[in-house]
Amino acid sequence: MDLTGLLGPSRPLPMRVRPVGGESTGSFVRRLGRANGLDLASFLARVGQGQASQDPEQVEKYPQYTEMMVNAAGRTYLSVLSGLDVGLLQRALPSLADDRLLPGTGPAVWQWPWEAESGHLVPWCALCGHRRRVGERVWLMSADSWRLCGRHLRWTDDSRSTDPEAVSVAALSECVAAHRDRLRLQRRFKSAGEELFADAFQVMYQWWAFAPDTLVWVQRAWTAGLEARSARAVPLVVFPEAVKLAWLMLRFEQAGLRTPQDRGRWLVLVQRQADVWDIDFAAGKNALLQWLERHSRPAAAGDSAVGTGRRQLVLAERHNRIAVRAGSLQQRSCMPSL
Fold this sequence. Notes:
Blueprint: H1 4-7, H2 25-35, H3 40-44, E1 49-50, H4 56-61, E2 69-70, H5 72-82, H6 86-92, E3 109-111, E4 120-123, H7 126-131, E5 139-142, E6 146-149, E7 154-157, E8 166-168, H8 173-210, H9 215-223, H10 233-255, H11 260-277, H12 281-294, H13 317-322, H14 329-332
Parallel strand pairs: 1-3
Antiparallel strand pairs: 2-3, 4-5, 6-7, 7-8
Helix pairs in contact: 8-10, 8-12, 9-10, 10-11, 11-12
């Protein structure tokens, strides 16, 4: 009688695998199992009682569609099998955070839902993998549906496409510069900077929807080797303008002047920038007006920013009621999704 599922593993597997920061639990488990000559079904037999075990071959075949979820006992089992401290696994694998665990204090349980509930499965940059001597494809659990590797200038997303799996942005200098500017916005203004980028990104999505044939966006998609009107291309082609718009939104918030005249002057400023960007201002005006309406009143007296040290920027009152400080760009924005 095999008591592994009841008593749990007592020692690590012979071959160790180091997790990648942000990796999905399912991705890590596959790599650990393969390193030890175990298919997914054999590995899962050592983890506990679970759901979806009736079809482990499909789970193993389509890692881009599903994530592994465990309860506290299951996390402990993974710690033992991997030979890694629970705390290290929690820091590296987002789905093992305390608030992501399955409920229950009994025997180890795992589930493998076909839609990742807490983010997007995005491929890790293969060149980063080569640099770290990781030969297998690694899937990251990302809050957003895309990632840009600043080291290797590669854009990956959750489109699940392998044609191409990663998009080079080396020829898109404006995207490279935008990536650096976004990081600077995050470093200087913390959550407020990221929320303003989220707002700007949602505005640019609406802008693109009204003017998808804008020449600069079409050319950017073609340069990246993507179809201009494909859903996969949209985040990449509007990325530079979204970052620039976020800085303009920051300027509005910092000024603290919100009368109709102040909002009108800010719109004129954005219109001038749209002319510089060579995109049609009229196509984005309604989205900009909506953003201004949601930022028409300053933060309430009781609102406070997260963080320590110097005073952090606190965004407008209505924005703070709608947006959240964690999750996807859509969740961190006060703007509606398309």
